Amino acid sequence: MTTTGTGRATQEGRSAPAGLHALMDRYLDGDARAFAALHAALAPRLTAFLVHLVRDTAAAEDLVQATWLKAHLARARFHVQGASPDGAVQAWYFTIARNLAVDHLRAQVRDRRRREPGDDGGERDRLAEIPSDLPTVEDLEIGEAEAQEITSRVRDALAQLPAGQREIVELHKFQGLSMAEIAARLRIREGAVRVRAHRAYKALARWLTPTLRALLLLLARGGGA
Asked: Where is each RNA polymerase sigma factor 70 region 4 type domain found (predicted)?
C-alpha cells in the first residue's frame, strides 16, 4: 500500500515551508544532512501543533520524537499527490503526529476511566478537536517485513549497550516512558537518566545506518524528553 501526502496545510492553515520536497527527496536517498534540515524546518511546527492538541508540553515533545521515528520507518511509502509537493511533505509528518496524538489522548481517557469511572476530564473534547480530514493511521501502516528488519537492527545494536544504558533506551523508546518516569522507576536522579540516555544514543548512532544515525543524534541532543 502506498501512502500519499495530500498537500493540505496542516497547522491552522499555515502553508508549508518552501523546499521541503527537495529535502525529502534527498533524505529518501539517504542524505543525513537533508534529514537534519527537515527536522529544523518542521520540528517547531510539529511541537506547536501537538501542544495545542494534547495540552501538555512534555507529552508533546515525546510525541514529536515518536513522529520522527514513525515517519522514518514509513519513509519508503511517502508519495506526493496534489498540487503542492512541499505541502504533501508537511501533511505527511502532521498526519503521523495527529494519529499519535489521538492514540495518546485515547490512552488518557482509558486511564482516567479506570481511576475515575464516569469522568473523562474533558479528553473527549480534545479528541473532537483533532482534524479528521487527514489520512487514517491505516494509510500510514508500514510493511511488516520492513518493520521487523528495522526492529531487528535496532535490537542488535541495543544488545551491545551496557545494561544500564540499554534499560533506559528500552523504557524510553519501546515503552514510551518520559525521563522523569524512568528516574522514578529506577530510583535514580533524572539527570543521571539523561546522561545515560545521551551516551546510549551516541553509541547507537555509531552502529546504525547514516539516516537513522542522524535521527538518533538529534534525539540525543534534545535530551530525550
From this structure: 153-204
